[in-house]
Amino acid sequence: MPGRKLEAEKELFYEYLRQNGLKKTRQKDLILDTFLGNEGHMSVEDIYALVKKRDRKVGIVTVFRTLKSLNACGIAREINLGDGLTRFEHCYQHPVHHHIICTKCLRVIEFLSPELERVQQGVVSRYRFQPLHQRIQIYGLCEDCRENRAAPTGPQPDTEKIFARDALRMAIAMQRQGCEFYRSAASCNQDPAGREVFESIALEEESHALQLEMELEMMHRYEKGLEEAPVFLHFDSCELQQLIPNLPSDLGDSELRLDARRALEIALQLEKRAAGFFKDYAERFGETEGKRIFERCAEQQMKHFASINRRAEAIAPASA
Fold first, then answer.
1. Are 60 and 70 in contact (CB under 8 A)?
2. What pLDDT is recorded for position 61?
3. Taking the complete model, does pTM exceed 0.90, yes or no?
4. Are 190 and 255 in contact, with CB atoms under 8 Å apart?
5. What span, in angstroms and rounded, lies between the C-alpha atoms of 167 and 40?
6. Residues contacting residue 188 through CB under 8 Å, at least 6 positions apart
7. In the chain, which residue ranges form alpha helices assigned H by DSSP?
8. pLDDT attached to residue 177
9. Which of the four, 6, 10, 26, 272, has the lowest number of CB atoms within 10 Å?
């Protein structure tokens, strides 16, 4: 995937040059490779210093114009940290996000909040406004600067990787919450057949959760600094809790008696809601690894829904 992404970015840049009557040169290729090979928020001077190590003939004006071209074709995005320098960050197949900026050490924390996006969408819809682009930048002092601690150093992970990490964390949280629900329903259900249904589905949810946790562990292993990177995708955990169905009480008190058929119907509610939740999240983002994780989770939930539904149809005649 990374190789295909790099090729797509290069082709996007070359197409921009062709459409605007600009020449493809070795120096532009070098600047492009240098930018794509480095993460973070880099100024013209930062890129120029790196390029000069490989070709001392490249001028800073060429670097500036090439970065402007990358901005124009959607590979880079300009960002201002408040220090008078124009910086550039990767934006191709990266989720649109906002920034928290320390004015002392210039540390940048990137974040995305679907809840905030909904508020913004509600405001622009109220005024029938068609937004072209939007950006929120919050300036202040980070915790390290307030406490006079040295700022953390080390490799800065790709925003797309951090987004994928947080998408996996959300998926794991959903699976774990499902496990807890099914186990709780099994423990208080007085009907043996219904209890067995909840227990078996809890094991299936547990298996999927373990698969996701292994995937996250592998991601941490191969992406240096990813595990310690600040949270990027800030989601409201209450959204997950709202997906959990309410358990009915047949006897009007705390005792629960759900036969296999009714237990399966409740499971179908949860799996369908979870699939819709992940599908909705996937539709909010452009083509990214995080989006693909949400799509995969939605597909997995629908497969589980179909499996449970087949079990419910198989016992329907016996319940008639």
1. no
2. 93
3. no
4. yes
5. 21
6. 247, 254, 255, 256
7. 2-19, 26-36, 44-52, 60-72, 114-126, 143-146, 159-188, 192-222, 237-241, 260-283, 289-319
8. 93
9. 26
Where the chain has pLDDT below 70, the residues are: 1-4, 153-155, 249-254, 316-320
User: What's phi and psi for 216, nearest 5 deg?
Assistant: -65, -40
Left if phi > 0, otherwise alpha if psi is -120 to 50, otherwise beta: which for 40? left
Q: CATH for 1-92, among 3.60.20.10, 3.40.50.300, 1.10.10.10, 3.90.180.10?
A: 1.10.10.10
The bridge status of strand 86-90 relative to strand 76-80 is antiparallel
Q: Identify the residue whose tokens are 């509600």.
A: 122
> In the chain, what are the domain boundaries?
1-92, 94-153, 159-319
Q: What are phi and psi of 57, to 5 degrees?
A: -85, -15
pLDDT computed for residue 46 by the predictor? 92
Distance separating alpha carbons of residues 103 and 107, to the nearest angstrom: 8
* CATH class of the domain comprising 94-153: alpha beta
With CA atoms as reference, report the closest residue to 33 among 58, 50, 46, 56.
50
Do residues 188 and 262 lie in contact, with contact meaning Cβ atoms separated by under 8 Å?
no
For residue 319, the model assigns a pLDDT of: 44
Burial 161-174 (b: 16+ CB within 10 A, else e): bbbbbbbbbbbbeb
- Per-residue pLDDT, 28: 92
Nearest to 319 by CA among 268, 238, 265: 265
